[in-house]
Design goal:
The chain is mainly alpha-helical and 128 residues long. It contains four helices and no strands. The chain is 81% helix and 0% strand.
Length: 128
Amino acid sequence: MLRIDYQIIRYGITGILLNLLTYSFYLGLTWLWLTPRQAITLLYPIGILLSYLSHRTFTFRDRKNTSVTAPRYLSIHVLSYFLNITIIYIFVDLANIPHQFAQILAVFIIAAFSYFSMKKFVFHHRKV
C-alpha cells in the first residue's frame, strides 16, 4: 500500500508560499536598487524567522523547547545562505546567467537541502 508522506506535503505547501513571497520581494529589491547578493542578505533573516515559525508549527509539528531546535535551524540557514551566495556567484558572476534564473535554481537546491537537514538534524526527535 502506498503511504502518503504528509510531512513532505506540508513542507512543500509552506515552502511554495514562503518562496513566492520572498522571491517577489527579491525581484522587487533587485529591480529597485539592490544587487542580488544584497537582496539575499536583506531577505534571509526575514525568511528564516517566517520559515522557522511555519515549519516548526505546521510542517514538523514540533512542540519541544525552541532552545534545542532554534540554534540548529539557524545553523542550517547559515549554511543555506552561503550555498545561495555560492550559487549566485557561480551562475551569475562566472557563467553570466541572469540572476532571476539563478535564484530560482537556488531555491530548489536549498529547499531539498533544508528539508533533509530539518528532518534529520533539527526536528528529528519528532515522528509525524
